[in-house]
Amino acid sequence: MNKKLRFNTATIHGGQSPDPAYGAVMPPIYQTSTYAQITPGGHKGFEYSRTHNPTRQALEKSLASIEDGQHGLAFASGLAAMDAVMKLLSPGDEIISTNDLYGGSYRLFTKIFEGFGLKFHFVAMNNLDHVEAAINSNTKLIWVETPTNPMMNIVDIKGISQIAKKHKLLLAVDNTFASPYLQQPLNLGADIVMHSATKYLAGHSDVVLGSLVVNDQKLANRLSFIQNASGAVPGPMDSFLTLRGIKTLHVRLQRHCENGKAVAHYLAAHPKVEMVYWPGFDSHPNHEVAKKQMRDFGGMLSFIPKGADHAAAIKIIENLKVFTLAESLGGVESLAGHPASMTHASIPKEEREKSGVVDSLIRLSVGIEDAQDLIDDLEQAIG
């Protein structure tokens, strides 16, 4: 299809066409490692599935379409996708990163790539002056997460992109919490968009997969080389499941947003809740930025029960019946977690608390169940 599709249509048809072999509407699961060749090097576009696979290729075209980009690449996980971006850099290069980011990202940066000579500066990016102040002659990349995990801070992607372009820096945006349904960072000036597609894109808590989307051909070629040379690629079944999930992304996110709003307002009015972090509130520090760069405010939020300590927060989570106590987010089912001991346990306590990730913080991934059932569940758990 040459005509640019609107988002809701792109989730279903973007980059897709019937399979040429038999006209299958859904791309078949090409469960093969290798492909017959007529003569050495003479093949039909596929020679080995680490390099290319028709099912993965269909997913990669879909990923590019929904992010309004030119080139999509799929990886074995979100962290594998991030790993590929870091491999664009060299020892001595410096990276400016969001300070309150996913614990796994922090661990990858500090425990792996700092050991290879990269240097990371973690700054509060809700203030653009902090970003500008951290740039020096060795800076090569700005890594943005917005909304942030789990504090729900909003970073002005367009504002950061102007800074990045002025200093000739790459800008990468982790778009996992928002999904391309809510924001498309390439259209706001980003060079690279990353997803843990495990979350909202696949949407059913049954696959682990990551992705990158870019516009620049040279950048795509470099990342594609790393993807193939390092080999952290998803299998055809995971690619198929993610592609199937994407086809309902728009309808799922509508309900995630509706339920997220209902739960956020319920918690904000609860006498036993001290603080709720959700970008849809007028009182959110960067609410106006969120309104400009996002279609809606999503189904992720965090809250602190009034007067709660670590034990009290854990008790609330353990008392939930509809929300499931589990890692991850973005699936159709609602999940509850304790960042300090789960997703962000790899970050030292002192560093966690600087960004607000205290022991009493509870994170919710609001699913697509009936909103009243979710509210009733929180009511009985909080007491």
Please sum up the structure shown.
With 383 residues, this protein is of the alpha/beta class. It has 14 helices and 12 strands.
Topology:
Blueprint: H1 7-13, H2 54-66, E1 71-75, H3 78-86, E2 94-98, H4 103-112, E3 119-123, H5 128-134, E4 139-145, H6 157-166, E5 170-174, H7 179-182, E6 192-196, E7 210-214, H8 217-230, H9 236-246, H10 249-268, E8 273-277, H11 287-293, E9 300-305, H12 310-319, E10 324-325, E11 335-337, H13 349-354, E12 362-365, H14 371-382
Parallel strand pairs: 2-3, 2-4, 4-5, 5-6, 10-11
Antiparallel strand pairs: 1-7, 6-7, 8-9, 9-12, 11-12
Quote the distance from N terminus to C terminus: 54 Å
Total domain modules: 2
Which segments are poorly predicted (pLDDT under 50) over 5 or more consecutive residues? Answer: none
**What's the SSE pattern?**
HHEHEHEHEHEHEEHHHEHEHEEHEH
What strand order characterises the main sheet? 1-7-6-5-4-2-3
Share of residues in strands: 5-15%
- How much is the radius of gyration in Å? 21 Å
The CATH topology of the largest domain is given as Aspartate Aminotransferase, domain 2
Average pLDDT, all residues: 96
Structure summary, number of beta strands: 12
Number of helices: 14
Give the structural class: alpha/beta
Identify the overall geometry. globular
Largest sheet: 7 strands, mixed
Amount of helix: 25-40%
- The quaternary state of the protein chains shown equals single chain
CATH class call of the largest domain: Alpha Beta
